[in-house]
Design goal:
The chain has 414 residues and is of the alpha/beta class. It has two domains: 2-193, Rossmann fold, CATH 3.40.50; 196-413, 3-Layer(aba) Sandwich (Rossmann fold), CATH 3.40.50.2020. It has helices at residues 2-8, 25-34, 89-105, 140-145, 152-163, 176-185, 196-205, 225-238, 289-299, 317-323, 343-346, 359-370, 402-413; strands spanning 15-19, 44-48, 54-58, 76-80, 110-114, 167-171, 190-193, 218-222, 244-252, 258-262, 277-285, 306-313, 330-334, 353-357, 382-385. It has an eight-stranded mixed sheet with strand order 10-9-8-11-12-13-14-15, sandwiched between helices. Strand 2 and strand 3 (54-58) form a beta hairpin. Helix 2 crosses helix 12 (359-370) and helix 3 (89-105) packs parallel to helix 5.
Length: 414
Amino acid sequence: MANIDRAKNMLPDNVVVVGNTSDDPFAIDVAYSMGQATDIADLISMKTFANSEFCPRFIAGRTGEELIGKQLDGKTVIIISTSNKAVSRQNLAMRNILIARAAKENGAAHVVLVEPDLYYSAQDRGPHAYLGDTLTERDKKDLQKFDGQAFSVKLYAEMLKLAGVDRVVTVHNHSYAVQSMFSEIFEGQYHQLIPYEIYLDYLRNSNIVNFTNEGDGLALCAPDQGARAFVLEMMARLDLPKAKCLLLDKQRSGEREVDLSLYSGSEATFEDVNGHDIVLFDDMVRTGSTVVKTCQALKKVNPGRLIFVVTHFYASEEGRQKMADTAIDEILTLNTLPAILNRDEQGRLRRKLVVLKIEKWLARNLKQILGLPEDKQSGFYQVDMSSKNPRFTRKIWSNEQLPELRAERRRADD
């Protein structure tokens, strides 16, 4: 029966999944989840010349002079691109360009770049008002922030398009300017996947937080304007009428300093979330300054547990040190930056970090985007658990039981 199910899930012969580094585990897992039977290493070689220049080569599956330069005729080539410690992001970006060009020059009909953490998103605007779309009018301070820089994300998108990329798929990008630019350049063939269903499934089925069947005891929190739409959508999808929604405002007073206040449109106040398990959401974290300061402020309202949920985790030394703060009880993240699975990268955070591996979820979404037959496999992710906390034992608690439970959890965390 397992072999029959596997056969039904096989990837069509006209679709090829490759990575942009040799033996990339993330790319291999996505390819396997999509049903690709051939190893990526047997589909493309990653040659580097003696002068350090990169030269990808698709390995011919068919022979004959008449097939030279045509081995990918009519095929869709999917390039999986994730960051790693061995190759710089600049190098990986150039590899994407060369692999896309190699695919097109050997007959590929359609090239898809899958980059969960989209490169150059930090340089999402330039020093002029017309260089980067924003939701509000750009003031002098915003323009000055990019003075002297290139509008890098536009250049990257244009280079990908020129190289032969037809479609770009990413995960939970934080920038409206990036989304706008890629949508324009790729003429609507830009797909931003938001991991609502992954987080919803984990919150509902694990015991990372505890709440009643109507949501009493649970609060979701957005630390700034950028996270509000995501948190509001999470609230709507959770469909728990008694859960609280706390929206905050953030003002930067320096490179590492932030001031926090309650957003005027917040449904809940600080007093409303007293005693609740609070889940703080953000799309990415680098230094941890904002999340730690937010959690320290929220600790003053005597919550149950404080959970930080983040899609893209840049495990910098500064971030590891700051987020070891006792204000954060646990961290839940995805492996869009696969290095976070490395125990050395986790460092001091290891005992309060859970990573959800998204390759299966990503493969499922790619099949939907490309109109490929979908498999019937259950589940969205695999769990890589470093945390000391048990999982998937969540019970439905009554209002009377919650205080006792929270006291027990605080004793365990201490």
